[in-house]
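Forwarding these from the shared drive since the link keeps breaking.
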Amino acid sequence: MALIICDKHGESVVSYVSPAIADAVNGVRHDVDHIADVRLQVTEGAVGVHPIDSEFASRLQREFGIDPNDLSALPEEQSFEILCELKLVCAMCFNEWTQRRTR
């Protein structure tokens, strides 16, 4: 479990999200579209679920030739490669941003 020091919430658990979602959570970007979850296996048996935007999902489809609607079937090496591209955000900030989007 990773922790981050958030200006708003102090010490908090992190969420790994696509760069566009990280920008939206941090107030830099406001045009993030549909959010999907990608399931990445970085160690045998351990699968993490990470929110990504449709632009990021489309890029994964182009680069890895995989269906963006079924990203759970990735080998460990590809999962690690994708995980390295995700950004860290405060989990509480992410939850607040998600709640604002659904209103």
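-- next protein --
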Amino acid sequence: MATRLDHPAPEVSARAPIGDELCGGAKAIVKLAETRGWDTKTTYARGTSTDAQGTPTRVVDSLLVRMALPHGGNAKACAVWIDGKFALAYRWAPWMSAQKIKSTSLRAWLRGEG
């Protein structure tokens, strides 16, 4: 049985995605955010996931999209895709604590509706 100490190094350390590493859902969020004036930064990595106890499980491709609205209150958000599927997102701003949100709420937040 693997332990936390057995966690292998990533196959691909975090870097900008190349070619088709950026899945359709992440592309759509980046496009929406940028057309609404948000700054974005996207990173790709490939490495071993962990279970709830921190034990290594399987190798996954992951994408992280970070978004920041430089004007209008410094709102921020981030979203994660694992193996091309939306996994989770958070939003926060100086006037509110971080909140875990679904993809529909993320899109509304980026449009200024939430």
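The chain has a mean pLDDT of 91. The longest strand covers residues 56-68.

- D.
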